[in-house]
Design brief:
By secondary structure, the chain is an alpha/beta fold. It has one domain (about 1-205): 3-Layer(aba) Sandwich (Rossmann fold), CATH 3.40.50.10610. The protein has helices at about 1-15, 85-95, 165-185, 190-200; strands at about 25, 45-50, 50-55, 65, 75-80, 100-105, 110-125, 130-140, 150-160. The chain has a 4-stranded mixed beta sheet.
């Protein structure tokens, strides 16, 4: 029975890793056909500057590790597009999905940091748990006064347990994590309240473009 388990684990690792010593580059992004309704969509239309985020991760070289059957790191998993740009596009999607405008000459700037962007896996005897985790800090700043309107941390996490999976599975897990990040922004009622309060003070922030 022990030999059967070892053989099964070896098979899972082969299915999961492919070439374990070759770097994997994933094309990750929030799914364009996934849209979430929430408090942010109830705010009168605002024009935002395109989000500008700094990559504040401690490990900027990769977004995860390939591992062997013993849990040892064997090769990098990285993103084809810079991580800060991937998250910036996800943040912009949260705004445009809720009928706001994103571009230049906006009334509100969106700045902040990407704090975590990581893919991990937990190898068991019969299955592998794939985990994606994306975290960022966003500061919504009045473009004229340079004062912060609202600042908060946002995160998106998704996991899937399967018998195995290669790059398509890893990409899917991270894409769904980005979807969850978008959702956390759209559903932030405190952000919506802060933007509404700003609109009440300065109606010129609104845009009908």
């Amino acid at each position: 029975m022990k030999l059967v388990r070892v053989a099964a684990l070896a098979a899972v690792v082969v299915i999961m890793q492919g070439c374990a010593f070759t770097e994997a580059k994933l094309d990750v992004h929030a799914n364009q056909d996934v849209k979430v309704a929430g408090p942010l969509g109830d705010v009168k239309s605002i024009r935002f500057n395109s989000p500008q985020l700094d990559d504040a991760r401690l490990d900027k070289a990769r977004i995860g590790w390939k591992k062997n059957g013993f849990g040892q790191n064997t090769a990098d998993i990285s993103s084809k597009e810079p991580v800060d740009q991937v998250v910036e596009k996800a943040v912009a999607k949260a705004l445009t999905d809720t009928k706001h405008n994103v571009g230049s000459a906006g009334a509100v700037e969106v700045v902040g940091t990407v704090d975590r962007f990581w893919f991990d896996l937990d190898v068991n005897f019969w299955t592998v748990k794939f985990i994606g985790d994306v975290q960022c800090t966003l500061d919504f700043v009045d473009a004229q006064t340079r004062q912060s309107i609202y600042k908060s941390k946002y995160s998106g996490t998704h996991s899937e347990e399967k018998a195995g999976g290669l790059e398509a599975t890893w990409t899917m897990v991270l894409n769904k994590s980005l979807d969850k990040l978008v959702e956390s922004i759209v559903l932030d009622d405190e952000l919506a309240a802060a933007l509404n309060a700003r609109l009440a003070q300065q109606p010129s922030v609104a845009s009908t473009e």
